[in-house]
Amino acid sequence: MMKMHAALLLVGCLLLQAFHYAExxxxxxxxxxxxxxxxxxxxxxxxxxxxxxxxxxxxxxxRNLLASDRKLMGKIKSAAKTHGxxxxxxxxxLVGEHTYNVDAKDRLQSYYVKAMAYLGQDLTFKYxxxxxxxxxxxPAFAKCDSISKAxxxxxxxxxVWNQSYRGKNFAxxxxxxxxxxxVFFQPLYAGQxxxxxxxNPLTALKVNDMVRAKTRREPxxxxxxxxxxxxxxxxxxxxxxxxxxxxxxAIDAYAxxxxxxxxxxxGVTATLYNLGNVTVRAxxxxxxxxxxxxxxxxxxxxxxxxxxxxxxNKLDDLRSLL
Length: 322
Fold this sequence. Notes:
By secondary structure, the protein is mostly helical.
């Protein structure tokens, strides 16, 4: 009996040690709510897209679509469950995009119809005569070839573009001073995003393996098949899965790189959905906080931009949709 008691005591001590270790090494939770007392400045592009209406009217339009379409809400919850996130993060991203980017369509069916239209188009990812599939074979991109994870692979290629090509004379021609995604990934309307989730093709490529790991019914995407990528980001069912993957990646990246748990703050995840380049932003925040720690200063929490500020400010209303 005494041996059993001692064994149980030992197990209890080990479990307690494990609990304290996990607690000590857990990422710092970013609490709900806004860090900014007032909404940060809204960019001029968003203001231009809102001429003839107001941000509040656009907010109400997407909110009403979510409130009235229970089928859509079911799909949102299903996508969130697939990637293990709170569905409020998807709602936040949807509301932010359709408040500050484009107006929501009145019916979900409109997105399905438009998605099918892309499959019949002859689309190629290229800049002038240079096809993307040929560009990434150039020597400057060779260092990325051994990377297996899609997000890291395309992030590496973005970095090469920024370092060697963007706005420079390189590899025999002058390249535009613009984002990788705008130059090569949007042959229809440079710089735009598409569909219910306002995704772009580059983002879809980055999280394609994450989505496929959760649901094999989603196809493997390739830059050689641009119409399929456009169909994927336009079709609501797949769009929501990709949105959830983007948000899941942001939560994981900030925990791993910056030591912050942002899963309780939909305004921060919405901000990152809006801004992109999550791993770079997490790394920059981590370095900044390391310098602050060395100087005896407190860490800076991840903060929301104008887009995420709205989500946190409207959170009770958006939660009611669930």
